[in-house]
Write a structure and sequence with these properties.
Length: about 150
């Protein structure tokens, strides 16, 4: 009986030490993920914009991805810009399109420009006009300039 009790105590102690070690390991490995989960969307978006201003596009991408996947239009637009800055045009197009479809004027203009240049998508001047026209209608001055140039054939 004494041997069984000692064996059981040793096993429980080992199990608790092992569990604590695993938890500590998981906490240190996933600290950034846990922090992202705890932050409100507004706080997370603030961190995205701070990284964007510092032109830390890898950080922008890792921070904005979860928000963009949830449909946050600003995160989608910023994510598009970050990918375009890294010349990953297919990804940039994908995120600009999601933001543009939700009415983001900046994303609409950038999407139009991608259609003009054929970046991440086949060149299509009609779609370029459509998107830059929407950007202009939504108050984006650059969209108006691009739309005007496309219609003047420049």
């Amino acid at each position: 009986m004494k041997f069984t009790k000692t064996l059981l105590t040793t096993a429980l102690f080992s199990l608790s030490v092992f569990s604590t070690t695993q938890i500590a390991y998981a906490e240190t490995n996933n600290a950034e993920l846990v922090e992202q989960a705890i932050l409100s969307d507004g706080e997370q978006l603030k961190r995205v914009m701070e990284a964007f201003e510092r032109e830390e596009f890898d950080t922008v991408i890792s921070l904005a991805q979860p928000l963009a996947a949830q449909g946050n239009v600003m995160a989608q637009s910023v994510l598009g810009f970050a990918y375009a800055s890294r010349e990953e045009y297919f990804q940039a197009f994908k995120w600009y399109q999601k933001a543009a479809e939700q009415g983001d004027a900046s994303a609409q203009n950038n999407l139009g420009i991608m259609y003009v240049l054929g970046q991440g998508v086949k060149q299509d001047l009609n779609l370029a006009k459509m998107w830059t026209g929407k950007a202009c209608d939504n108050g984006n001055p650059k969209g108006c300039d691009t739309y005007r140039m496309l219609n003047e054939g420049k």
